[in-house]
Amino acid sequence: MKPSLPKGTRDFGPEKMQKRNYIFSHIREVFQLYGFLPLETPAMENLSVLTGKYGDEGDQLLFKILNSGQYLKKTETSDYNQGEKHLLPLISEKGLKYDLTVPFARYVVMNRNDITLPFKRYQMQPVWRADRPQRGRYREFYQCDADVIGTESLVSEVDIISMINDVFARLGLTEFTIKFNNRKILSGVAQALGKLEAEGPLCVAIDKLDKIGLDKVLEELSATGFDTDELDRLKPIFNETDTLDYLSELLENSEIGKEGLAEIAELTHLTQHLSKELNAVFDPTLARGLSYYTGTIFEVKINNVVMGSVSGGGRYDNLTSVFGMEGMSGVGISFGVDRIYDVMEELNLFPDDQMLSTKVLISTFDDESRVVGLQLMSTLRSEGINTELYPEFGKMKKHFQYADKKRIPHVVIIGSEELSNKVYSLKNLQSGQQQQYDLSELLEILKK
Amino acid sequence: MKPSLPKGTRDFGPEKMQKRNYIFSHIREVFQLYGFLPLETPAMENLSVLTGKYGDEGDQLLFKILNSGQYLKKTETSDYNQGEKHLLPLISEKGLKYDLTVPFARYVVMNRNDITLPFKRYQMQPVWRADRPQRGRYREFYQCDADVIGTESLVSEVDIISMINDVFARLGLTEFTIKFNNRKILSGVAQALGKLEAEGPLCVAIDKLDKIGLDKVLEELSATGFDTDELDRLKPIFNETDTLDYLSELLENSEIGKEGLAEIAELTHLTQHLSKELNAVFDPTLARGLSYYTGTIFEVKINNVVMGSVSGGGRYDNLTSVFGMEGMSGVGISFGVDRIYDVMEELNLFPDDQMLSTKVLISTFDDESRVVGLQLMSTLRSEGINTELYPEFGKMKKHFQYADKKRIPHVVIIGSEELSNKVYSLKNLQSGQQQQYDLSELLEILKK
């Protein structure tokens, strides 16, 4: 039997793991620098928690878990005959989580009495979607989310934008752009065009701008009922400059639109007082599709790399209303680890030395040298130096091959000469140089 | 609708997460110190990979995932009528992983051409079992495993025992005992008693010694066919001393038994040459139940705490033979994070300062002071100091309550006096002291 992986899932071997951990640990450090606290929720949630939160399509994409034990005990032949939709709730009560937001909302509702507001939490966990697997789209993938809930202050938006800036700077991805906008502006635009009811289709169409271009966006809008005059009044927001001036004019009579503009002005005012430059620009054509955002929205692109956004988020009115708890406004950000990984590979941004695990391999050839090697191994480790002793004797070539494949930079050789002189031969595998040292010299070199 | 968690699963809120991460990061650091490399496998595996690897009971305890989309499309009413066992493979092809060992074996087989032997990997991931939930037993829980495969050298056993020692020492759990034994000795004992075929029942019964006591163990053995003479010859291995002498006598004519004793002697010889003391003792009554071990076995108990073992493992002959790949001997260890967590709580071993996230909260009262606060926040963060700005104005009492609940030790107050004098008031929440500083003094104090 030849074993295989389920479609759309992946193993992460040592090299990939070390690179992924490099990304995760930088993101985690920044989250903590900003006062976000960790949360983890189970992989499984009750289907009553998950169903209906992601639309009909989302419900289809949930992985459902068969009830354990006698999973047919609540069913009869007639239930089977009524088909999949009828049978499902009788044989499955749990599913794998689809995102981190709904489980977070459930956590907040269940722990409302213990949570201090504003609550800043981060969560880095896998989620599962029964999507058709394709290049860059997986059925199991990690999300890295941070949210502030329980305050409407724009300081939270400042935190999020500044945090995005820090994450990408620390990863060495200096050439990025944070675009931000406000859903209230888009509502206002729809209102100003006399089409408040068409805000949804407007956002969906604008969201495709990068993929299909302006002409096709306008075509799509025309097909959903925007007339020529309306489109003409919309077009100037796609200009590269002066859009703010145009918007103040266009939104003059839209309360919600003016609110959006005021929030953009306030956010710009606040970010200007950070003691650093942010790669952030206002972009009124940022829409974030059909998502549930109601205020500020943002998205990050890596400049000069053909790839969708690597991070995105925004403010929502009410995280927990789906569970009957009102008034929990918040703002969140999600980092797309798979895309960040791919772009860092493409730009060769993973530092070599971060990927090292073992620093020195000890090579011995008989019981006597092994005993000395064990002692040395134990001493080096107690000094915090990642050390291995090659577990077998045999040809030294094999030991060196092992070090080479595992990218171990140093080999200590304990041969008969070394034994009688009570020294250690240290070979640097990069330079090829080999020299004899006593223990204190060896420690000094390896601790560097 | 009141949301709930699936039975046997848990949320880990900020405080628990920080404590768990403290344990995980210490274990990970030690794994890396010993040259183990990280691996992660998907939560889902094909049922063809999982089924039949854990016995009939294990197969029952696997969580099965319903095929996505039209899950009944391969079935007819007659399949339903044939019952659960028949229907299962037609509606479910995947399951959640039950342990980390079988997925590791699958990984090794699928990547046999890319793996450098000996292969040292660690894996820290959740696993799922549809067990009846009870105190201390969960349906989703983490395993922390490290294995060396591809060498029969006892140096790997030395690594594992020394590693266990380091992990518990670093966690501050200094009062622990590593017991070790060898399955070959237990085989030898069964052989010496003329009951080689009863090795399984012998191990299962001895394994219960701690729980039920010697008398009940002997009763159980008697029930499975050991006669009085055989039990009399068995009893001396339960003595506290001289068991090695007795065993060399008893196993005189058992090849496998003598092999086991020789391995114990070799292991003892090798560990004596580490530059440190190990809390390791030979215990011939250690059995590790029905597990698949074939050589050295070990188990860790915390002294003076009523609790099962917190870690255990051993050597197996062939990790990958279930997938048709022979000759892959190895030795592994598993740390029980939930139990380690509980015992550390009981002994109060989590250091307070490890649990802190934010170091300083900035409190402002109007737009002018907020602008100054944002600048300070940004500066402190750029110096690596975990900082938050309370996002709202309002009563200062609320700001202090927030700091208190989040255990933030310092609050910087920027009031009107501070603004006009260009200073910052720093309040230490533990001592209650408050003093004014300029920026450089503030940085000096907070960077400590």
Please explain how this structure is put together:
The structure is a homodimer. Chain A contains 18 helices and 16 strands. In chain A, strands 1-5-6-11-10-9-7-8 form an eight-stranded mixed beta sheet. Chain A has helices at about 15-35, 45-50, 55-60, 75-80, 85-90, 100-110, 155-170, 185-190, 200-205, 210-225, 230-235, 245-250, 255-270, 335-345, 365-380, 395-405, 415-420, 440-445; strands at about 35-40, 45, 65, 90-95, 120-130, 140-150, 175-180, 280, 295-300, 310-315, 330-335, 360-365, 385-390, 410-415, 425-430, 435. The two termini of chain A are about 50 Å apart. In chain A, helix 1 (about 15-35) packs antiparallel against helix 7 and helix 8 packs antiparallel against helix 13. Chain A has three domains: about 15-55 and about 100-345, Bira Bifunctional Protein, Domain 2 (BirA Bifunctional Protein, domain 2, 2-Layer Sandwich), CATH 3.30.930; about 65-95, no CATH class; about 355-445, Rossmann fold. The longest helix of chain A has 20 residues, at about 15-35. Chain A is α+β, with helices and mostly antiparallel strands. At the A-B interface, helix 1, strand 1, strand 2, strand 3 and helix 4 of A face helix 1, strand 1, strand 2, strand 3 and helix 4 of B.
